[in-house]
Design goal:
5-stranded mixed barrel, 5-stranded parallel β-sheet, 14 helices, alpha/beta
Length: 410
């Protein structure tokens, strides 16, 4: 830890994925261990840390605008952009760079966790993927799984602190352990004995690495403390596009995974990601993507317009005009929302068990069903409270619920 980051008032601003937020959470523990006080505004801070994301072009531009606005402050920059786009950052400010891997090294000397209803546990850094459009894999490097005993200690610490939802995250969660003779299924089995009133949400898994241990991963979800939820990005419904993307699986592989999970867990929630307007995507390719959504019926589709990233294998390929990508994005989102409406209509009016994971505001909480359905309940309930809710209203991405009481209210 540099002396300039000890005994100071620090403001941290974080962008991007849950992994970045995990880095920031670890950095907070390190800073507080070194006498720092965390503040809520850069105006109240002696130093500012920005944890950057550069997954798509609009995000990169947003980062540069924000860094420029903070350039008069004592500024530290970490995250993916700090690893692969230093020259762009130095064009708008003159910060101190903190490589994300250094945060991991610092954290190992501390090991504490924050109090809170939701906690993040990072399983690995980097990935062994070959995605031709991805700048993140260049920023984070090859797969480096964290030791199982470190992960176990963090889960135990969060459980002891009263955390309700523990989010397992990595660039590719299902690749955990492939660099060291371990596996995600083995890890989940080895933490079953950790006591506490918590649930685990498994983060993004690449279909290519899920296929390498499909039966084991499906079995691992049988633990009642694991939400029946998978985030499985397919990216396209066309095998030709998937091959150009370097994804190393087929549409049939994706469908095989979905079928295996749904056969075992009928109430499973599936979130997926899709990129529209990738280099060379034909109208027929895009139609196959729409067909896949209608056939698989995911509960959530995160739609991204392809954005050329520097230093990637397809950076020089011909790109589509923005209007084409916008049109396809709108069509895909409309298709997905039709699916949501049909699926959600079938469960409005039903009762589900829930656990409260977050307080939204005074008089309102976010609860989760065993399959991670979001349920907003307009009551002041403590995090960790368990009960049953009647799903009253469909809000597309969550439901308004009413707590079911079998007896007169307290």
């Amino acid at each position: 830890m540099p002396d300039t980051l000890c005994n100071r008032r620090i403001y941290i601003e974080t962008y991007g994925c849950r992994y970045n937020f995990g880095d920031s959470a670890k950095l907070v523990e390190v800073l507080e261990h070194h006498g720092c006080t965390m503040v809520d505004s850069p105006d109240d801070a002696d130093a500012v840390v920005v944890n950057t994301c550069t997954v798509v072009g609009p995000t990169e531009r947003r980062m540069l605008r924000r860094l420029s606005a903070l350039s008069s402050r004592e500024l530290y920059v970490t995250g993916c952009m700090a690893m692969v786009q230093k020259e762009a950052i130095l064009s708008v400010c003159d910060p101190v760079f903190i490589p994300p891997g250094v945060i991991q090294d610092w954290y190992r000397t501390v090991g504490t966790v924050a109090q809170g209803s939701v906690g993040i546990v990072q399983l690995a850094q980097g990935c062994n993927g070959t995605c031709t459009y991805c700048l993140t894999r260049l920023a984070r490097g090859p797969l480096r799984s964290f030791p199982k005993n470190e992960i176990r200690q963090q889960v135990m610490a969060l459980a002891t602190a009263g955390t309700t939802e523990i989010q397992f995250t990595a660039q590719d969660v299902s690749s955990y352990g492939q660099d060291c003779g371990q596996s995600l299924a083995g890890l989940l089995s080895d933490i079953r004995d950790i006591p506490g009133k918590y649930r685990i949400r498994i983060g993004m898994m690449n279909p290519a690495t899920v296929m390498q241990d499909l039966d084991g991963i499906v079995d691992a979800f049988s633990d009642d403390r694991i939400f029946r939820f998978i985030h499985l990005p397919v990216q396209s419904g066309s095998d030709a596009v998937l091959e150009r993307m370097g994804r190393r699986y087929t549409v049939e592989d994706f469908c095989t995974i979905v079928t295996a999970f749904r056969k075992r867990y009928p109430d499973l929630i599936i979130a997926t990601d899709m990129i529209v307007g990738f280099c060379g995507e034909t109208n027929e390719d895009f139609s196959r993507t729409l067909d896949l959504v209608r056939r698989v019926r995911p509960n959530k589709v995160n739609v991204t317009r392809y954005s050329r990233r520097p230093f990637t294998p397809v950076a020089q390929e011909k790109d589509f005009p923005d209007y084409v990508k916008k049109d396809r994005s709108r069509l895909l989102l409309a298709c997905a929302e039709e699916v949501y409406a049909e699926m959600n209509a079938g469960i409005v009016g039903t009762e589900v068990p829930f656990i409260v994971t977050e307080k939204i505001r005074k008089g309102s909480v976010m609860a989760r069903s065993p399959s991670y359905t979001g349920i907003v309940i307009n009551e002041d309930l403590p995090c960790g409270y368990e009960g049953r809710a009647l799903l009253k209203k469909d809000r597309t991405y969550f439901f308004i619920g009413e707590r079911v009481t079998r007896f007169p209210r307290e």
